[in-house]
Design goal:
The chain has about 80 residues and is mainly alpha-helical. It contains 5 helices and 2 strands.
């Protein structure tokens, strides 16, 4: 999956537990773990907004794009 989730980084910076974050956001610790471990297929904007509010951060602090592989190099013509 090319989307990496950095919730654990923000939790460490805020010195907050997964349980506390889940409670404050209003989701189960199990659902937060699925999201935190990058196994979620989707995230609701309301959940993302609540995470950002509780962690005092921006969505880009929690999610980032990592390509699965390096782009192919352009072909060269050798004569």
């Amino acid at each position: 999956m090319p989307i990496a989730v950095d919730i654990d980084v923000m939790l460490a910076r805020r010195k907050m537990s997964v349980g506390e974050l889940a409670e404050r956001v209003g989701i189960t610790p199990a659902n937060l773990a699925v999201l935190k471990n990058g196994r979620a297929k989707a995230v609701r904007f309301t959940t993302l907004a609540a995470l950002c509010e509780v962690l005092d951060c921006q969505p880009g602090d929690l999610l980032r794009y990592e390509p699965d592989h390096a782009p192919a190099e352009p072909a060269t013509n050798s004569a």
